[in-house]
Amino acid sequence: MSRTCRMSFELLATDGKARRGRLTFPRGVVETPAFMPVGTYGTVKGMLPRDIEATGAQMILGNTFHLWLRPGTEVIKGHGDLHDFMQWQGPILTDSGGFQVFSLGAMRKIKEEGVTFASPVDGAKVFMGPEESMQVQRDLGSDIVMIFDECTPYPADEDVARISMELSLRWAKRSKVAHGENTAALFGIVQGGMHENLRMRSLEGLDEIGFDGLAIGGLSVGEPKHEMIKVLDYLPGRMPADKPRYLMGVGKPEDLVEGVRRGVDMFDCVMPTRNARNGHLFIDTGVLKIRNAFHRHDNSPLDPSCDCYTCKNFSRAYLHHLDKCGEMLGSMLNTIHNLRHYQLLMAGLREAIQQGTLAAFVDAFYAKRGLPTPPLG
């Protein structure tokens, strides 16, 4: 079976373990390291597509599980695909639904064939396996398709993590077969919990099957940060150098920096958008809580070093007022800023890697926050 992947990856520069690269798709270019805003239901909450683009985001994430349940692929296919439905013309990565099924807890039953669960929309009994996930992602017109896997819970002892990882490998094979001649990129997902030997067995198994890129799954699921860093200390560097590396569901600005330092190319997380709606705004010195009373009379911009629409036009006092009144514009302006902050961080990391000055960039990043630079493992 001949298949040519419509995604290409070019490694442009390195600085230590960190990588500066470029993903190219028919729909556009994504400079890496890259952060993808999350558009769970076919929308990045509170953001018009043009506003997402204005933040500097080049690729977004859509959620297979939620879009499959509502509105359903028939509605989306009636417009063409997810790009046409939501009017985002850049590349889209879709997760497989595995993490959302994992999140259902007692509402789901896992078997070799796949997962049966009660729909969180209407309670109906629903089944999803690798074949169903691949078909939904094909219908969505995804540019990067993620395999269907089981997200290993935390904590998980070695036996539990091994059984979960081996099931995910079998599902990875079925995902590859079901993906067939689809020219969208297909990414494998490394599982194995916090156990290095299992992570390496997972990576070897995925390499044997053959994927267009690889992701690190099963992190940011409740483990202490030092456990996550421990995995990142050894895993990215052992992943194929000629393929993109994606850290799923992570995280805070500090987590992005630490991931990039260790060789990760791609990130996604709801944190900048969710925190924006809760009035937690990211600035160079850390987090600003806009609902605190002392912002009521503060006429200064949110972040003088930021060039986003919010910072160029509105005061902290106005954003505080919108938050206190529960006005939807407050969430929208906050989201514009947080997403721009993340994109400026990624652009700074890319430039530093290109120039060979990453260590100085990282030192300055932490110094602004009054923190020491963490050691590299």
UniProtKB/TrEMBL annotation:
What is the UniProt remark on how the cofactor binds and its stoichiometry? Binds 1 zinc ion per subunit.
Q: Mind telling me which Gene3D superfamilies this protein's record contains?
A: Queuine tRNA-ribosyltransferase-like (3.20.20.105)
**Cofactor(s) demanded:** Zn(2+)
Q: Where does substrate bind?
A: D95, S96, G97, G98, F99, D149, Q191, G218
Provide the alphabetized UniProt keywords: Glycosyltransferase, Metal-binding, Queuosine biosynthesis, Transferase, tRNA processing, Zinc
Q: Which InterPro entries did the record assign?
A: ArchSynthase1/Queuine_TRR, TGT, TGT-like_sf, tRNA_ribo_trans-like
Q: Which residues form the tRNA-guanine(15) transglycosylase-like domain?
A: 17-369
Q: Which GO terms describe its cellular component?
A: cytosol
- Enzyme Commission number(s) of this protein: 2.4.2.29
One GO biological process this protein is involved in is: tRNA queuosine(34) biosynthetic process
The kind of enzyme this is, by top-level EC class, is transferase
UniProt similarity note: Belongs to the queuine tRNA-ribosyltransferase family.
Please give the PANTHER family that the UniProt record associates with this protein. QUEUINE TRNA-RIBOSYLTRANSFERASE (PTHR46499)
Q: What name has this protein been given in UniProt?
A: Queuine tRNA-ribosyltransferase
Organism, scientific name: Pseudomonas coronafaciens pv. garcae
